# Entry
Amino acid sequence: MPKDHGIGASSKRREDIRFLTGNGRYTDDINLHGQAHVAFVRSQVAHGRLKSVDTSAAAGMPGVLRVFTARDFEGVGGLPCGWQVTDRHGEVMKEPKHPVLADGKVRHVGDPIAAVVAETYEQARDAAEAVGVEIEELPAVIDMKAAVADGSVLVHEDIGTNLCYDWGFVEENKAKVDAAFDAAHHVTTLELVNNRLVPNAMEPRVAVGDFSFATGEHTLYTTSQNPHVIRLLMGAFVLGIPEHKLRVVAPDVGGGFGSKIFHYAEEAFVTFAAKALRRPVKWTCQRSESFMSDAHGRDHVTKIELALDAEGHFQAIRTETYANMGAYLSTFAPSVPTWLHGTLMAGNYRTPLIYVNVKAVFTNTVPVDAYRGAGRPEATFQLERVIDKAAREMGMDPIELRRKNFITEFPYETPVAVVYDTGDYHATMDKLVEIADLKGFEARRAESAKKGLLRGLGVNCYIEACGIAPSQLVGQLGARAGLYESATVRVNATGGVVVMTGSHSHGQGHETSFAQVISEMIGIPEDQVEIVHGDTANTPMGMGTYGSRSIAVGGSAMVKAAGKVIDKAKKIAAHLLEASEGDIELKDGKFSVAGTDKSVEWGAVTLAAYVPHNYPLDQVEPGLEETAFYDPSNFTYPAGAYACEVEVDPETGKVTICSFAATDDFGNIINPMIVDGQVHGGIAQGIGQALLENATYDEDGQLLSGSYMDYAMPRADDVPFYKVDHSCQTPCTHNPLGVKGCGEAGAIGTPPAVVNAVVDALQRAGHAHVTHLDMPLSPARVWAAINAK
Amino acid sequence: MTKVAMSVNGRAVSGEVEGRTLLVQFLREGLGLTGTHVGCDTAQCGACVVHVDGKALKACNVFALDFEGAEVTTIEGMAAPDGTLSPIQQAFQDHHGLQCGFCTPGMVMSAAALLAENPKPTEAEVREYLEGNLCRCTGYHNIVKAILAASGQEMAVAAE
# Structure
């Protein structure tokens, strides 16, 4: 019988009611009294010198309050980068200034040049058209390898190079890795592209700035996954506002997928302008504007080599990757191709020697940063593709080759500096073989063949590192932030509980799943628990939600704070029951004395805490509220195995996903319904990357895929129903809930399954020359591959 | 500015709008009905779908002035006055057909229009009908499931 409440129950989401009835409160739904609106003038060219910005005509247009340019931001800092990578020679990365408004040069299409604030948004847009911008166009730097070749035009002349860093990991192992390749029985080499994507949360970014002359306090309402991080970065590095005078509110947020982690220029602008104009200032991003201003994702070009012995045991891995940073360093951009990518190159396998080289490159494109999975999809894709290719070259079954190399003993220290605490990769693969009915593949293939379609099967594994931590370690690796999480658990006199968490929900359902945990711990109904998040004024310092960290890190902080509350409540209960504290048990909302029938209800204890007439004042203070900070001792390591079956139409090259199955080991699960939903969404994004999506620049740096008319988002009829299974559970050993995190798995595990399946279909049909296809696998690309001589 | 009057969720409303004011702006900014969302500027995403005279319509792509005298229903008009969810809304909650909630109003309005036209759609018909509604969170799995369930075809769902 499945549970109907608490940990492990598929409790229906309480937040759904407001979203289903139109009562959600997203940032664009916030309108402050007297607010003005801003429209940005953005660069239409990828690269050029700003010769002049003439604001005079715009300033005189109806409703215009003021036109801002870089000159207004002379005393203001640039947008900071939150992670400093040190390269293989011991040099710190190149870190060019990222001004709020373009200063001297424009460096990508969409770079903001001026900002027009007017009474209405329409007036602001009309006037923005009238701002005269004179730009001396420069050649655009688009191709990464050309960007780092001698004599390339420079995106930032002051740093003297387009190479941000040249990172080697683990540098000390390089000679040993090279020697292993020299001695290898077989080497499989694959060159591939991890295509550039636009995250495309359905809610475009919005920011509303406000300033109170009465209190001197700034308030920023913004579409953010981490309001405290924005408060810290914008307050300390850009505008010089102390945190106690800056409140950041991220109310209902319509999806993030990484793109709403970062601190953006528009947030700093509205905060600055609200004080300058003595009025609230609102910015609502248009979708076409978001394509050229939201940080993009992926965009790696990689060569990977895998060395094997005669039996197929992996001997060594060597990679060289060019990672696009875009025109400026977005908040966490440098960490994505390095510490979030290199550390995952062992995958689920025993490979004794690994060397990863990453060259991060500036180009005249929108900044690139974390997008669902962030570095881990890039690692998984190259590894799982090269393994498939190696299996084919060596005449081995791709599943058996993987099984032969699985890590089976835990904890396992990889050669890329991480320690996997638990896992069972054979179990998830066994489960996959079952739920995907791999035994029935040949029969299904024969059916497809009767229709003239080429059926293929792709299988792969993945591992990810979630809940990035501990703070001390990431500090050594260059993070300029801690990566703990915090929570306050406040119990009211009548027994209801309010949890204030630094995690942020923008679709993940924290308000439900976090309440389930508290309900389980105390034994009170879930509706007695309220989860508050997203406002720096009423939640403790938090690092927010990304990297599948909410339940593993934020949930652990909440459990820790709730544990403190329960410990204190037991002292009160012991007093009320005239028993020893050590004998008090809490179960089903009732404190009882072990071995007796004496008990007191949760609500009686909480009332005593606030009405302390009969109370152990000599031992504890009145009240029942505790805060905890939790800094994990390790990452968590969700892992799994995915299978995709496709049909390829040889006449057109069109790929149809026939079935998709995913088995994930997420450790313990709080709400299976929510976890399934997270995986479904990740799979669709993975299918989108593999078949449809591509942020395309032409050689002049024009973004050709700048709207939903040109950027192919997955739609309902592009995807099938998915089979997902989470019954393989090896609980995390180092957090109190034994949870691992589930938000990114689908996006990480899916692309190689799809590409492996399409290559398999073509190989089985006799197209032996097709050993790889770069994503997205559009009909044109697949057709061309089939028909290549 | 020109006066426009229409019925929204059964209530007579009116307001002064510019010729260029979109229906979605009139609903959101003029009437404060912020449940209808704007997710794109090319009429692709469907977050703004409302019903006009019983038909689904993307409110981001039409001028408010063209709807003089029309009967408009938005997401705010879908539940019963006592707050009881309509069967489609309830199915979305029961089957976890929403995550961040931003596309949800448009999805619910499209789903309602589909079932009004075709009370027992197949899975393929549901997926095809939703071509004009983008969701980035759910992978569509539970949306399709919810719509099939709301049509009374729960058993037709092929996968869990």
Notes: Chain B touches chain A through 62 residues (CB under 8 Å). The first strand of chain B starts at residue 2 and ends at 8. The two ends of chain B are 53 Å apart (CA to CA). Chain B has two domains: 2-76, 87-154.
